[in-house]
Amino acid sequence: MSSAGAAWGIATACAQGWIDECRCAPRVVPNPKNPHTSDWDWGGCSDLVKYGIETSRKLLTRAGPRQFILKKIEKHNLKAGRLAVKKTSATSCKCHGVSGSCQSKVCWKKVTDLGAITKHLTDKYKKAKQVQSHSEIEKSRNSELIYLEPSPEVCSQYQYNPLHRRSLPRVCNWRNETHSLGDCDHLCCGRGYNVSYMA
């Protein structure tokens, strides 16, 4: 998610013109009423998605011993995050022509909203594949997430220890009727929670 968020943020900032190195370049569209003048219009910003992905790679890919399996897993998952931005990118088009006709059309790729990217990666996370060796990492698809050991299940009766207060203190959404992420029942392992009011 870190690499996907970085790529999305950079590409979005570029599209807004906040980064000088990657602003959208205007495209000249001839004005049919006056061939000696031109109307300025946007020609698309497909390169900004690529720029965001490439910059994310440079920012988050750290140098280190490649023989360490955890390092290879991290590098693989960072790449999967960047690919998620590319796979979820949307196509936008704009028509050009006389009186609103579409004699020519310019299309470009743009990043989708961060929520769609998060959902895409959440689905990948649920289907993540466990690997045990370098060869298994190399055989994994670039778009899939991988892991070495399963995360501890904090809500398990074998892991939960009230004395450790493993699930507290946490801020949660106690009025979450849809029981989505952030729901108190989920975060507190269904063992109840206290509601406090601050003046």
Topology of helices and strands:
Blueprint (H helix, E strand, L loop, with lengths): L1 H14 L10 E5 L7 E5 L3 H15 L8 H19 L2 E7 L7 E7 L3 H13 L2 E2 L3 H6 L6 E2 L36 H4 L12
Unreliable spans are 26-42
Using DSSP, what is the number of strands?
A: 6
Number of domains: 2
Overall form? extended
GO molecular function, one term: frizzled binding
Protein name: Protein Wnt
Keywords: Developmental protein, Disulfide bond, Extracellular matrix, Lipoprotein, Secreted, Wnt signaling pathway
Pfam families: wnt (PF00110)
Give a structural overview.
- The structure is a single chain.
- This protein is α+β, with helices and mostly antiparallel strands and 199 residues long.
- The protein has six helices and six strands.
- The protein has helices at 2-15, 46-60, 69-87, 114-126, 134-139, 184-187; strands spanning 26-30, 38-42, 90-96, 104-110, 129-130, 146-147.
- α1 (2-15) packs across α2 and α2 runs antiparallel to α3 (69-87).
- Mean pLDDT is 77; it is low at 26-42.
